[in-house]
Design goal:
five-stranded antiparallel sheet; 29 strands; Methylamine Dehydrogenase, Chain H; about 260 residues
C-alpha cells in the first residue's frame, strides 16, 4: 500500500455532538474528514495523504479526484474507478468527472459525454470552462473564461470580470474577479479572493462579515451554510453567526458534505 492509499494518518478531537454533518475537504496535503455538530467544527482526520484535486458528494458517498484516479466510497474506504487524472467532479445528478477536457459520467464504468477545453468545475448539468458555460453534452450556454458555475435554482457563473446569473441571457450581478459560486436553489453565495457575498431575498448581493481573512474556495449547504478557505479554515453558520476552526491543511480546493 503506497502513501497515496487510504489510511488514517492523523486524528484530533475538539468536540462531540449529536446531529453531525460530515464534510470532506480536498487539499494539496490530502483528504480530510471533518465532523460538524450544528456550527461546531469538531473531530477531524486526515484520511488520505497525497494531492486531492476535487471532491463531491454522490448518492451518500464521497467522490475524490486525484492526479491518478477518481476514488469513491465512505469511512476511509475508497475504491478506484479507473478514470485517471481528474480536475473537476460533479455529484448533483450522479457522478461526473473531467480531466480538463473529457467529461464523463460514471455508472459502474465511464461513458464520455463531451470534450471541452480548460474545464474548471461541474455542477448539476452545467460545466464551467475556458470557452464559457456548457451543458454536459458540450452545448455552449454563454459567456467565456468561466471559473465556476452553480446550476441549482437560477444558474450562476463566476468570471474574472463579474458574477453572472442566467435570466434573459447572462446578466451581471456584481463586478469583480469572482472565483466561487454556490447555491442550493434558495440560498446562494459567491466569492472573490477577498470577499464572500450572499444573495438576499430581493436578489441583491451583500458582503458577508466573516471572522477570518482567508480566501473562501468553496461553499456547501446542509441545513446551515458551510465554507472552507484556501488555508484550511472550516466555517459553519446555522443561523447564529459564523464559527470556525483551522484543520491545518494548505492548498484547499474543495468541500463536500454528507
Amino acid at each position: 500500500m503506497s502513501d497515496d492509499d487510504i489510511t488514517l494518518t492523523e486524528k484530533r478531537v475538539y468536540a462531540g455532538g449529536g446531529g453531525v454533518t460530515t464534510a470532506a475537504v480536498a487539499s494539496d496535503v490530502g483528504l480530510a474528514r471533518v465532523s460538524i455538530s450544528d456550527d461546531i467544527v469538531g473531530e477531524f482526520s486526515l484520511e488520505r495523504r497525497g494531492q486531492t484535486t476535487a471532491v463531491a458528494a454522490v448518492d451518500g458517498r464521497f467522490a475524490v479526484g486525484t492526479p491518478r484516479d477518481v476514488l469513491v466510497g465512505t469511512d476511509g474506504d475508497l475504491e478506484a474507478t479507473g478514470f485517471g487524472d481528474a480536475v473537476a467532479l460533479g455529484g448533483r445528478d450522479g457522478l461526473v468527472a473531467s480531466d480538463g477536457e473529457r467529461i464523463a459520467r460514471y455508472d459502474g464504468s465511464w461513458r464520455t459525454l463531451s470534450e471541452l477545453d480548460a474545464v474548471r468545475s461541474i455542477d448539476g448539468g452545467m460545466v464551467a470552462a475556458g470557452s464559457g458555460v456548457h451543458r454536459l453534452d458540450g452545448t455552449h450556454v454563454g459567456l467565456d473564461e468561466v471559473l465556476d458555475v452553480s446550476a441549482a435554482g437560477t444558474p450562476l457563473a463566476a468570471t474574472d470580470d463579474g458574477l453572472y446569473y442566467l435570466a434573459n441571457g447572462w446578466m451581471r450581478a456584481l463586478e469583480g474577479s469572482f472565483r466561487v459560486v454556490a447555491s442550493d436553489g434558495e440560498r446562494a453565495h459567491a466569492a472573490t479572493e477577498d470577499t464572500l457575498y450572499e444573495r438576499n431575498e430581493d436578489g441583491t448581493w451583500t458582503p458577508v462579515d466573516l471572522p477570518v481573512t482567508g480566501a473562501v474556495v468553496d461553499v456547501a449547504y446542509d441545513g446551515g451554510v458551510y465554507a472552507v478557505t484556501a488555508d484550511g479554515t472550516c466555517l459553519a453558520n446555522v443561523g447564529d453567526g459564523w464559527r470556525h476552526r483551522s484543520i491545518g491543511l494548505t492548498g484547499v480546493v474543495g468541500l463536500a458534505l454528507l
